[in-house]
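Tutorial handout. Part one gives the primary structure; part two gives the three-dimensional structure as tokens.
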Amino acid sequence: MRRTPRQQDLLGRLTAVVVAEGFAEATLDDLARSLRCSKTTLYALAPSKQELVVEVVRAWFREATAQVEAHLAEEPHPGRRVTAYLEAVAAQLSGLSRAFLDDLAAFAPADAVYRRNTEAAADRIRALIAEGIEAGALRPVDAAFAAEMVAATMFDIQRGRLFARLGLSDAEAYAALAGFVEQSLTA
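Part two.
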């Protein structure tokens, strides 16, 4: 859907509110009041609160992905690119409130967006590990297996399992994963 600059601005401001405060308890009236707009203005972004939440989650992931890729582009060393990627993901996730992450996990359509983005990130990790091995910067391990292990951890992070077991936020878990991967794979 093509949005006007005003709608883009509103979606950005709405995203900031939702990732800071969560969305399960917020009504459209609450969101409109917080953004100083009408509910009709919000309905121009999506026809229901549920669809609006999905739009917000998609918008957040689009921006986060762009930021992660920009950070990765600044890292030329093939042995550091996996770590740089995971650290950039951790930095993006650090801005998300626990309320937002809990609401995300509890709302299947939004959680599905998170899952699709985690799958894309896992694919990106597979490619980065293979590139690092091919360049001789990472140990010659089975790239597919190493990537699957990283991906499995990423999915546990996405599902909230590491938070439940270890008390680590998603950002903290990604930062720990980055350190583990670097120590494990560096040639």
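Part three, for discussion. The mean pLDDT is 91. The chain has one domain: 53-185.
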